[in-house]
Design goal:
- By secondary structure, the protein is α+β, with helices and mostly antiparallel strands.
- The longest helix has 25 residues.
- The chain is globular and about 60 Å long.
């Protein structure tokens, strides 16, 4: 029986060693679909998910991940990729969706206003934030926005580095959706930052603008060796702050 969200979160551990038991490719794919439903900045969905099941590709990926056990013993691998470079394409997809969603005769005034606001957001604001040239425009916008921020609250993340962080945050949310979904059906995962990201990009045939967010090993945990130790978390009271 599938676990509840709380049960899945408690069950999920970074599994370093997997058994030889096969896992269902279609079930993993469904978990990746769940990943695509994660919250994402401006609904731009600047991510891609690479699901690796080919033996040769798995071996090459293991080498790119320094042959660590979480990659070497994984039955399948998933690579979460941040695609900040696709912002124009994804903004256009949102505009097309809005046109279809509001394509109704005699649309009520408040809905027409909502459509215009949303369309302007993707046609005007998103290009203002994401357009850059060698990082120069980003710093110019950053300076202007900081000045404006002296007089009113304003969005301040306008540099290339800021937008990379935004894309990776969304990708990280998708990755967590994926791993919790896997845990819910009794599958195990391990998110890995330890990899030669350039080699990973070459293996996957990714363009220059794509960035590796994380590689995730997938399989069934070895009950004796899979989890390296008991879970440690700093006391909750040290990280929880109630704001009254």
């Amino acid at each position: 029986m599938e676990k509840t969200v709380t049960e899945a979160i408690a069950y999920r551990r970074s599994t370093r060693v997997y058994t030889d038991e096969l896992i269902d490719t279609e079930k993993v794919k469904q978990c990746l679909y769940n990943a695509s439903l994660a919250p994402t900045s401006s609904n731009l969905q600047l991510w891609e998910f690479y699901h690796i099941t080919n033996t040769d590709k798995l071996k090459a990926m293991s080498e790119a991940c320094f042959n660590q056990n979480a990659a070497k013993t994984a039955q399948q691998l998933v690579v979460i990729v941040a695609r900040k470079d696709l912002w124009k394409q994804r903004a256009k997809a949102n505009i097309n969706f809005l046109n279809r969603a509001f394509d109704k005769p005699n649309l009520e005034p408040h809905l027409l206003k909502r459509k215009k606001q949303a369309t302007d957001y993707y046609k005007k604001l998103i290009p203002t934030i994401y357009t850059d040239f060698l990082g120069i425009l980003g710093y110019l916008k950053f300076s202007v926005f900081q000045l404006m921020g002296l007089f009113k609250p304003i969005y301040r993340q306008t540099r290339q580095s800021d937008m990379r962080i935004v894309a990776h945050k969304s990708a990280g949310l998708a990755a967590q959706n994926f791993m919790i979904s896997m845990a819910a059906i009794g599958y195990d995962t391990c998110p890995m930052e330890g990899s030669d990201t350039l080699r990973v990009k070459r293996i996957l045939g990714l363009p220059r603008g794509a960035e590796i967010n994380m590689v995730i090993g997938c399989g069934i945990r070895d009950e004796k060796k899979g989890i390296y130790g008991p879970r440690f978390r700093v006391p909750f009271e040290e990280v929880y702050r109630a704001v009254n």
